[in-house]
Amino acid sequence: MKHLLLLFIVLSFLSSALATAPADLGQGLAYLRVHSLAADYQSIDAAVRDSRALVLDLRYIDAPPGSLKTLQDSLARRPAAATLFVLLSPATPDGLAATLPANAFTLGIPQLNPAPKITVQQTPAADRQAYDALETGTPLSALITGKIEKERYDESSLVQDFRNGNSNPAPPPLPNPTTGNAAAPPGKVPPPTDRVLQRALHLHRALLALRPR
Questions:
Q1: pLDDT bucket at 183, cuts 50 / 70 / 90
Q2: In 38, 82, 127, 202, which residue has its Cα 20 to 30 A from 171's Cα atom?
Q3: Burial letters for 174-211: b for 16+ Cβ neighbours within 10 Å, e otherwise?
């Protein structure tokens, strides 16, 4: 019985560690989802010290008193040249945006206060649904590769906008902002698209394409 209990504790610890380890999105981009600024502090601190580009997902987090200052101190130690994308939502605690570095790319849906640098047209319900899908087993790759019918706004479109002098590009309106991906085969429901995370990925790819070769 003691051995089973010990095994359960070890597995729980490993599961927790994996849950807060950065995921690799390819081409030098990492993704870290934060559930609690206090409980996940070590994971945050390790991720922001890394020189890789980072997507820090702070959309639905718990922020105990004093944790925002700790986050600010940790972000201050991030390498100046390392790109940082921060995902926000209406549920993100008040005052958190003020702790972010000035060079961070903030992304979120409309009606955020203060407004993010990049606004993504997705409803609060769809944003939360896509966020929760990862928690319930939907692969991260499935959440960021979905497309909406008649829309094509990826890194190629972003590169073109940047080259035309638009530093805050926005995609065309969605055909129906309450729907997910394009129509799926009968009887099969497609996974939702995490459009905020997807935009961060596309922006990273666009910035890479604009670098001098």
A1: very low
A2: 82
A3: beeeebbbeeeeeeeeebbbbbbbbbbbbbbbbbeeee
Which residue in the block uniquely carries the two structure tokens 């829309």? Answer: 151
User: Can you read off the two tokens belonging to residue 162?
Assistant: 């940047």
Which domain range does residue 52 map to? 21-210
Helix (H) or strand (E) holding 24: strand 23-26
pLDDT at 29: 96
The pTM for the full model equals 0.76
Q: What is the pLDDT of residue 113?
A: 86
Look at residues 167, 159, 170, 168 and name the one whose alpha carbon lies nearest to residue 211.
159
Strands 105-108 and 53-57: unpaired
- Domain contains 194: yes
Specify the number of domains making up the chain. 1
Burial of 77 from C-beta contacts in 10 A (0-12 / 13-18 / 19+): exposed
Closest listed residue to residue 90, CA positions, set 49, 48, 123: 123
Task: Answer yes or no: are the C-beta atoms of 123 and 178 closer than 8 Å.
Answer: yes
SS3 content of the chain, % helix, strand, coil (to 5): 40, 10, 50
Instruction: Report the length, in residues, of the chain.
Output: 213
In a domain, 134, yes or no: yes
